[in-house]
Design brief:
single chain; alpha+beta; 9 helices; 38% helix; extended
Length: 282
């Protein structure tokens, strides 16, 4: 929740309240331990005045970076992990953190389909059978059950029972616009919570401000500040054709002598050192 709120603030400049349904899942296709979170959320959120600002594009890399730091910050505050281990994990090519936001629900039926997938059970009885000859429990997984794994009955029982939530543990959670508290508050005020006024932000505005804000935060340089007059620049379009780019550079007689930016490992180390000095973690 905190990672998504921070992303919306970076992307739009507003403190938005989105509607979020989050489902905690602990299992993978093989009934193995694979903790992850499925989120069904609105494409944007409301400002304090009740207007809904739509965010049409999500930057998975930015959300992943924010979410990674939020998780490590929580673990550090609870003293469940040390800074040396955090630095070591952040140096890995694959840290284990991943964000995927390419699935879109355009209709109510599609949203229901996504919701059913989010709360699906950990196994399918149609894919489960017992091999009497080998005395093994077999489970088919992957797409259309194309792969199969065999295990003894004790391991099967251990896998299944390890995913039973603790007593009182809530696996489906509602935040923001979808929370009962917010919806009840809006109804008492005589406002229909399902029909807020929608403001369509410019499509180019959200991504351009997102990457510019991240560059300012990391490198302390404003990429949209004109080096000649000091005025604020605005992205009009992106030119991706290499021939067109070379032609423009040649016409303007521009030469580059770019310095290599610091690696992500150096940036993470600087952030951790600064956080340790201030008694905070990011």
């Amino acid at each position: 929740m905190r990672a998504l709120l921070k992303f919306f603030h970076i992307a739009t400049g507003f403190e938005l309240m989105p509607g979020i349904v989050a489902v905690i899942q602990t299992f993978g296709d093989r009934i193995n331990f694979h903790p992850h979170i499925h989120v069904l959320m609105t494409e944007g959120g409301t400002t304090p005045d009740g207007a809904f600002h739509r965010v049409s594009r999500f930057h998975d890399e930015v959300i992943q970076e924010i979410f990674t730091h939020e998780v490590f910050s929580l673990l550090l505050r609870k003293k469940l992990i040390g800074i040396p281990l955090v630095e070591k994990i952040l140096c890995w090519r694959h840290t284990g953190f991943n964000v995927h936001s390419k699935v879109r629900a355009q209709t109510r039926r599609e949203a229901e389909r996504v919701g059913k997938y989010m709360i699906r059970p950990l196994l399918s009885l149609k894919r489960l059978f017992f091999d009497e000859t080998a005395g093994k429990v077999c489970y088919q997984y992957s797409r259309h059950g194309s792969q199969e794994e065999s295990m003894d009955y004790l391991e099967f029982i251990a896998r299944v029972t390890s995913h039973i939530p603790d007593k009182g543990q809530v696996m489906v959670r509602y935040y923001g616009l979808y929370s009962n508290a917010h919806r009840g508050k809006m109804r008492r005020a005589g406002v229909d919570p399902s029909h807020p006024p929608i403001i369509e932000d410019e499509l180019n505005y959200v991504p351009s401000k997102g990457w510019a804000e991240m560059i300012r935060k990391v490198y302390e340089i404003d990429p949209l500040l004109c080096p000649s007059c000091g005025g604020q620049m605005k992205v009009i379009s992106f030119i991706e054709d290499p021939k067109a780019i070379d032609k423009i550079i040649c016409h303007l007689k521009i030469t580059f002598q770019a310095e290599r930016p610091p690696s992500s490992h150096v940036i993470h180390q600087e952030l951790l050192v600064a956080a340790e000095e201030q008694g905070e973690y990011f």
